[in-house]
Design a protein that fits this description.
The structure is a homotetramer. By secondary structure, chain A is an alpha+beta fold. Chain A has a single domain, classed as Thiol Ester Dehydrase, Chain A. In chain A, 21% of the residues lie in helices and 39% in strands. The first copy, chain A, has three helices and five strands; from the N terminus they run E-H-H-E-E-E-E-H. The radius of gyration of chain A is 15 Å and the shape is elongated. Chain A starts with 5 loop residues before the first strand and ends with a helix. Chains A and C meet through helix 1 and strand 2 of A and helix 1 and strand 2 of C.
């Protein structure tokens, strides 16, 4: 997906994720990606979301894009891979793909564009150099 | 339901509330009651949740009970009635019933037992007299 | 947004839509758009989702794109406008924008690309002429 | 909890489970219990929800009760224990308790009362003897 590392998280499919079409509800896939990022921030980058908040920063989604290929169903397990694909002065772009654990076929893929903001003001913020380092793996 | 006033709110059923059984998902009915209470705190009691938070208080659920009678489906609208049924030193009990707008038949009913807590410490808190007045309508 | 009609629905913000950032959770905006489309299919196009299902058709999301401009908070109300912007042999593209009712400022905007599928097989399906007519308003 | 077996499932806490109070949203605990039951039906009782549906049966919640002791937060993991505590002609009662994995302290506990229904008619149904056997472990 990119010159940066690709990290992998496993996410449970819960019965409340299933909608009237007997599939995981479309919007839930964003929550699966968010779950993977939280896990990977702590486990893979070594800087948890809590650590960002303690430094007075937060990440907000500016834009997102997703393609749906095949649905997940009850009993399935999601494998979510994410990778930073671009680091800008004030934000990062993260690509993801979600596969079904049982057959490794693609369920969905896309990207999220995040801006770094100040927790206090809510305004966009330049990413400090040490955080650029952390994400440049 | 009680010696105190009964207030009524109308809550939209959204497609994402419907689960794999083609009904509103059980746990969502608690969210319909929560929506009604927020609406009624501001509109009927004249003290919004924000006003509680500004005074350094919050409400947490200690216990809940619900009976399910008939399901709501996509296209239905929920009518949620709530009423304070008990005011204690450190909490209130709120009864609710949810009906389907189209036929006024009962969908679910039950109660929620709330404790007042300090926002700072998270610990139980005696309810101030003026707030007891506000809820004694 | 397009040569086709723009329709408007009002969607309640519920307390359970608010996430740890005190804003409506990003993924919920897709549910607000879905709620608007269900409302508009029945009220504006005169063919409800149920009517599609009865004819053996369903709509699935192939891709989506969203930009987030400003958050909604508890107490706000969402105004969701949608419009068909493209009709293809086997799908339609729907643009949306979400504004805050109080100040009509943009909260989010984007598009959803839907494929028509057969309920039985789950496979892509040519859109029948009468349905193309219904959406060509 | 009962004369019947107690089974245990581990449930991920997802960022979208956290509400504006920075805790797992109250109503989500029902989804954690539901997730545990689905897992245990297949893994522990040897009859998955799918197997029930294939035989033309489903389970619906008639009533529920929950006490909240301590909240779960982002980064926590839930351990959900459930046990059948009563088998009636047309339903079963299931007790649960949820603990935080890190310290095994109680988060919530309560029960769910389920009725067996016919998938076709939606009406209450006597539980077949072989299913009573399956749950009598």
């Amino acid at each position: 997906m990119s010159e940066f590392s690709v990290f992998t998280s496993v996410v449970q499919v819960r019965p409340d994720d299933i909608d009237m079409n007997q599939h995981v509800h479309n919007a839930k896939y964003f929550d699966y990606v968010l779950t993977a990022r939280y896990d990977q921030m702590e486990r893979c980058y070594g800087m948890s979301m809590e650590a960002f908040l303690e430094r007075g920063f937060s990440w907000v989604v500016r834009a997102s894009y997703m393609e749906h290929k095949r649905p997940l169903r009850i009993g399935d397990t999601a494998v979510v891979k994410t990778s930073v694909t671009e680091i800008r002065e004030r934000g990062v772009k993260v690509s993801f793909d979600i596969t079904k654990e049982a057959d490794r076929k693609t369920v969905a893929k896309g990207w999220l564009d995040y801006a770094m903001v100040s927790l206090q003001s809510g305004r966009p913020q330049s990413i400090p150099d040490d955080i650029i380092q952390i994400y440049s793996v």
